[in-house]
Design brief:
4 helices
């Protein structure tokens, strides 16, 4: 009997190819020649790999921010499973301050396939799967942008909806 160890997993798509050595800290991505998967999170083996880029979900990045910051040279890729998990500006800023490399976001399906990915223009996530548009329309956290992106792609993009600032009402006495 032959086992398919990577069944249901797809390779990570690096935002700006070619991919440098990248450590992935979630189990739902398949390793490749430049991508190593450490499903248990940051560990001695991940550190020994000396990645130039790191991909993980926000929870695993938060754990790194609290205890150990590996030195990176290329990028941080935050992997989400749903539209509602897109980063807030304060989270992006935390990652920038900690790693000092560009922050990219991707949304992956349960089987690991790419649903949306942020490009080098950092103006939303390009929708890669039509099914994601319906999820975006039902979400209060993101909206679809149909205008052309600075990278040149004309595909719709998911953009995080920023909440309206609270208005302070003054009452004349």
């Amino acid at each position: 009997m032959i086992f398919d160890w990577f069944s249901g997993k797809v390779a990570l798509r690096y935002p700006v190819p070619p991919a440098p050595p990248t450590a992935v800290l979630v189990p739902f991505v398949r390793p490749t020649s430049m991508v190593r998967v450490f499903p248990q999170g940051w560990c001695e083996q991940a550190e020994a790999f000396q990645p130039a880029a790191l991909a993980a979900d926000w929870v695993r990045f938060q754990a790194l921010l609290d205890r150990h910051i590996p030195s990176l040279t290329h990028a941080v890729i935050v992997l989400a499973r749903h539209v509602d998990e897109l980063l807030e500006e304060r989270q992006r800023l935390e990652l920038w301050r900690a790693f000092r490399v560009p922050v990219f976001e991707q949304i992956l399906a349960d089987n690991g396939s790419l649903l949306a990915a942020e490009c080098e223009a950092h103006d939303g996530l390009h929708v890669e799967s039509p099914g994601l548009s319906a999820e975006a329309e039902a979400s209060e956290a993101a909206a679809l942008a149909l205008d052309p992106c600075g990278c040149g792609k004309a595909t719709p993009r998911l953009k995080r909806v920023r909440p309206e600032p609270e208005r302070i009402l003054s009452v004349a006495v």
